[in-house]
């Protein structure tokens, strides 16, 4: 290869994967971890992103460049203006109006030509594309490039199989969305009952039919599915899902256990932390083992002022030490100041904004997690053996709650049944004026927290099960474990010609 640099020659000897995430924190974070694992397995990775999203993971990008990682973080212009979006609206959590949700999802398709041009100008040619399930337009792009395309699904396999079962069995046909009756999902190894509203997706709304059909078709034509889970966590559901879709299913998680994830890199996952990590760790060091409960509801879920007050008062009533992450600071800043004074820093720590979640959950002082049941959060807790108080809001979260509480039996439900529609942060105060009362009360919060943290024999059994799942997760990601082998075999399958693909052999 005369005229080529040593780096180019070396890159040409590696299988090349193109990773295209959906631009939302819960979707991007695990795909960044996946890209690092692929590079660790000897692959070249082109990770497609935009300037705003690249800024959020800048420490990871900088570390990759310094370490000689084979990940190329490709920053392309996001066509906000062409899509009718405000300039800089490059991530789902930056959407300021619910009318812009659908245009935002569709807007990424306008990047297809940029991506194709970039990939055709670089060597080696890509061997495989891994795209988020919402990036439906990558089906056509992969055809133009002549490469196989694999879907990355963010939710649990339990959710994916149950949702597929509900669709194929037409369980909710003729049932009103607001019907509060629970219906069983047939032919499962556990009794799982769910309300229609708890599995209704945004894509089921009027006006979304074309987009929904495009996403479904793109999934049907994909070569396989990559999942952020592990075989030992949901074995029955993974096997049932494989049979149901008739394709390869590759569980390669928990991705949060990426082996180079020291405290610094764990803190860098997602957006920049709103608290100094050293201050946080010093506070946690003063607490007894498993005595602190961590409270956070992800990057998208929004709490009204009324709900925030109920959460705070419920935490205080529980008399359990806590770390509480509050994104919606502007709706009750004065109340929060008074709450902190009454709670004292010794008992509780309030983090305004973004918290280094994996750092917190992995600390020995943390013994419980109040979560919205987003799959990343659930899996991060499972990965470190922390049981959960479940408080789902929408999307896959209600079924994830059933997995945590009914199947894995490592959680206590707060009792939430109301589905929360997505409301941009700027509209939250308008929305709360329509609420007569909070759906979940302080007594519900206190009861669930006390039950989880001081649950006697039942609580100890939950902790034993959580620790067992943690050990299985660690083994799955270790060399020779189920997820490690799945990733290795996935890379082997999609390498188009003979290459050195496994530095561990």
UniProtKB/TrEMBL annotation:
Keyword Iron on entry = no
Lineage top rank: taxon: Eukaryota
> What molecular function terms (GO) are annotated for this protein?
UDP-glucosyltransferase activity
The answer, when asked if Zinc is one of the entry's keywords, is: no
Top enzyme class of this protein? Answer: transferase
E.C. designation(s): 2.4.1.-
- Write out the similarity annotation: Belongs to the UDP-glycosyltransferase family.
> What is the name of this protein?
Glycosyltransferase
Read off the lineage from the record: Eukaryota, Viridiplantae, Streptophyta, Embryophyta, Tracheophyta
């Amino acid at each position: 290869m005369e005229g080529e640099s040593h780096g180019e020659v070396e890159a040409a000897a590696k299988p090349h994967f193109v990773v295209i995430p959906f631009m939302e924190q819960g979707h991007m974070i695990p795909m960044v971890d996946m890209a690092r694992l692929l590079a660790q397995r000897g692959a070249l990775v082109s990770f497609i992103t935009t300037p705003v999203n690249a800024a959020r993971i800048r420490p990871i990008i900088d570390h990759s460049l310094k370490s000689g990682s084979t990940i190329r973080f490709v920053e392309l212009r996001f066509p906000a203006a062409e899509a009718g979006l405000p300039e800089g609206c490059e991530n789902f959590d930056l959407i300021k109006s619910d009318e812009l949700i659908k245009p935002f999802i569709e807007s990424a398709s306008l990047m297809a030509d940029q991506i194709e041009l970039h990939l055709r100008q670089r060597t080696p040619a890509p061997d495989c594309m891994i795209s988020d399930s919402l990036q439906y337009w990558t089906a056509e792009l992969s055809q133009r490039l002549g490469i196989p395309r694999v879907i990355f699904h963010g939710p649990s396999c339990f959710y994916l199989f149950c949702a597929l079962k509900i669709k194929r069995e037409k369980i909710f046909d003729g049932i009103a969305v607001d019907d509060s009756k629970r219906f069983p999902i047939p032919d499962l190894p556990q009794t799982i009952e769910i309300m229609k509203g708890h599995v209704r997706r945004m894509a089921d709304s009027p006006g979304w039919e074309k987009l929904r059909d495009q996403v479904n078709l793109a999934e049907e034509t994909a070569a396989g599915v990559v999942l952020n889970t592990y075989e030992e966590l949901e074995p029955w559901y993974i096997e049932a899902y494989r049979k149901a879709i008739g394709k390869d299913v590759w569980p390669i998680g928990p991705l949060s256990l990426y082996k180079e994830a020291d405290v610094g890199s764990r803190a860098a996952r997602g957006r920049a932390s709103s608290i100094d990590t050293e201050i946080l760790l010093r506070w946690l060091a003063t607490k007894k083992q498993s005595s602190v409960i961590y409270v956070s509801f992800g990057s998208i879920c929004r709490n009204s002022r009324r709900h925030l007050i109920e959460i705070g008062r419920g935490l205080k009533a529980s008399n359990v030490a806590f770390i509480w992450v509050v994104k919606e600071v502007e709706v009750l800043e004065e109340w929060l100041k008074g709450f902190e004074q009454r709670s004292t820093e010794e008992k509780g720590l309030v983090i305004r904004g973004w918290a280094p979640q994996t750092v917190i959950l992995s600390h020995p002082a943390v013994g419980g997690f109040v979560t919205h049941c987003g799959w990343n959060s659930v899996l991060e807790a499972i990965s470190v053996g922390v049981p959960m108080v479940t408080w789902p809001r929408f999307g896959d979260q209600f079924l994830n709650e059933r997995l945590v509480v009914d199947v894995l039996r490592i959680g206590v439900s707060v009792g939430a049944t109301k589905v929360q529609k997505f409301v941009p942060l700027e509209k939250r105060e308008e929305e709360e004026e329509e609420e007569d009362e909070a759906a979940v009360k302080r007594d519900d919060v206190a009861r669930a927290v006390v039950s989880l943290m001081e649950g006697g024999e039942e609580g100890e059994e939950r902790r034993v099960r959580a620790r067992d799942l943690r050990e299985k997760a660690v083994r799955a990601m270790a060399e020779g474990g189920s997820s490690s082998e799945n990733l290795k075999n996935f890379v082997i399958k999609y390498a188009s010609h003979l290459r050195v693909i496994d530095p561990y052999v």
